[in-house]
Every structure is written in structure tokens, then in C-alpha cells.
Amino acid sequence: MRPGRVCAVLSLALILACAGETLDGIWIGEIDAGEALVSVEVALDRDDSGALAGEISFPADGEHGIPLSSVDAVGRSIVFAIAGVPGEPTFAGELEGDRETIRGVFTQGDRSHPFELRRTAAAPPETIVDEAVRSNVIDALADHLIQGYIYEDAGLRIARELREVYDAGAETPSAPAEFAAALTGELQRLSDDIHLRVEYPRAAPAGPPVGRPEPPPRSEPRPDSASGAGRPELLDGNVGYLEMLHFGGGEASAAEIDAAMAALAGARALILDLRWNMGGGPFMVRYLSTYLFDRPTHLASRVERGRPEPAERWTFESVPGARLGQMPVVLLTSATTISAGESFAFGLRNVGRAAIIGERTAGGGHFGDLVDLGHGFRMFLPRGKTIDPATGEGWEAEGLRPDIEVPAADALEAALEWLDRESGRS
Question: N or C: which terminus of the chain carries fewer CB neighbours within 10 A?
């Protein structure tokens, strides 16, 4: 996780302390970013001096165990400060009367969003997953699927079939982390939804989340930027190149994209590299997209269970720099391009604005939030998806199929060759 990531992939470091209140344990919740809920989890423990310390995770994007850093708290007022991050990100909230909920406002730069954290009791390390724990967790999981999963009929079916699997004698690991992994495997087998999974607090996966392959190798380290943008380059033939590792948000992120687009404004074509992009938030997806159109454009829509009408996603009315609406655009993808990376490509594809070259993407087209299953377990529950407004279809599980399918390692070369052919240079 890089500092400055906001929405789906914020880079945060937090420590909570509140005089007279007990905050040890696991807190899960969401930042309400308007177009999406950004799920977060904060784990708190006392260090040797008695002060609180811990870590934060972003389960929807496979980000776990980010160390926490500093805070001020008086009575029930709690302020989570984030040091060394552009835009001075801050969480300011109040501990509710039941001492089980913190509500407040997250701010970064000139943007602010409400947030809510809810306490969930973590099972101690020595806890054994016995018959009672298994039954309780599966019952809670099934109830959430039935009440909140994006597809009502599928939620009912998955809940029923999951119960049948365990009623038929499926092996139940006694270790909580292993049980969470087993449940995840069953859920994804039954749903073909790589966002639907169960996790045990502080049990960060050793590798990529279930269903997601390893990313292609890179020769350069990832840039430490708020927006997720790498250094803009002009390749041979006056082709602009910009790598997007994630879609961060906030004032600092917008300034980085403004500078990158200004540096590439004189190119004859633009390549946006999404091969290592594993997510982000809707603000930067819209903001970068705006530079690629001459006028406001409807890119995609979002549907969510319980909401009768889709929410439309358009480019913004304006950006500070020159528009690149007539410049040819190529997007590079890999099998690990997921979530906001896919959403960006999906929106441009819907309106015929870019060619996609590389591998079929991961297929993470759902969004949702964390729900508590008890005994220290929680599930990421998909509640909605992004769709093409013309067809009503998304890309969950299927992924986005490139216009030119080549191994990720060969995508840049293939893109340059394609641009030469299209321009008549070859």
C-alpha cells in the first residue's frame, strides 16, 4: 500500500487512544465516498508501555496489515491523524454511547466523507473452531448472503448449498485462519465471485487473495505517489506512456495527474499501463477519464441491491489542463488488473475510446463492505456492480477481454506496433 491512496486503496497509518475508554480489539467499517463504500479494518492492541498500537487493512483490495501511527483523543472524541501523506488525511469521530461504534468524518485536502467503524470481538489465538463456532459462523454467513448479497436469488442458493456442503460432513479445520480460507474456497466455487470471501482478523494471506494470480514481474519499484501514477514518459515515436498502479484520490492526486497529462499533451498517442493496477476509488477513475474526452461523457452505471435505480458515472465537467480527446489511447492489462483498474478500462471501452492490449483482466466487478460473522471472523459481502448502461452487463468473473490478447510481458511492444500500424508508420 502506497501513502496517499484514498477510496478503495487508501494508505493509512493509525493509532487510536481514548482516555477512559477501551478500544482494544478489531474495528471494521466503511468510508462513504459517495459512489462507493470503502471497507476498512483496524486492529488495536496494547504495547509494552500500555499505549495502543495496531494495523489497518483494506480487504476489498487484498491489502492487509498496514502498520498504524498516531492519534489524539479526549473523552469520546477521537482523531486519527495520518502523518506524511499529501492532503493531511484525518479521521475525526465520536465514540457512540454503546462504546461499540465510532462515527465521524474523513478529510483529505478539500474532500470529506463520513465514516463508521464498528467493534467486533476477535477470537483469541488459542480459540478452536469447534462444532458450535462452525455452526454460528455459517449461520451468520448464510443470513448475510440472503439479506444483502448483490443477487438475491444467488444469495439464497449459495447459502443453501454452503449449508449442504457442511451438513454433508465437509472437513472443518480447527485453526480459524484455515477455516476462513476453506469457507472462502467454497464461497468462490459456488458463486464464481472473487470478491466474496471470509477472513480472520490479522490472518493476512501469504500471497494474492484466492482467485487472483501473481502479478507480472516488474523491473522498477512502484512509485510513491498519491494518485498511483508513475513518471510520465515519451517513448520512441512520440508515444506518451503513463503507468497507473492504483487510482488514488484527493487534491494531491489530482495535481499529479494534471502534471502528467500536461507532460504528455504533445504526444501523438497515449499508452496507459494498468498491468499492475489492483484497485482504487471512483474519484480518480473519473478524473483521469475526463482528460480523455472533449465533453462530459457517460462512462458506466452502478447498480446495488436495495436501490431501485442505477447511479450513473460521468466524466467531470472540467479539468485544469488541456483535453486529449482526439489522442489515440491504448490500455495495457494483465490477469491481475482488478477492481478500479478494470472499471477505468470498462468505462473507456463502453464508449469506444481506447484499445485494450494484454491479458484478460481478473474479473473483480463487484463492490461491497465488511460484515461481522462473530468469533473474530468477517466476510467481504458484494452488494453491487458497475455495468455498461447500454447492455446492463458488467465484468465480474469474466474479466475484460482485450482487443489484442498477448502475454502481459509483451503488451507494451504489441501496443507500440499496433499504434504504428494504425498511423500508417509501418
Answer: C
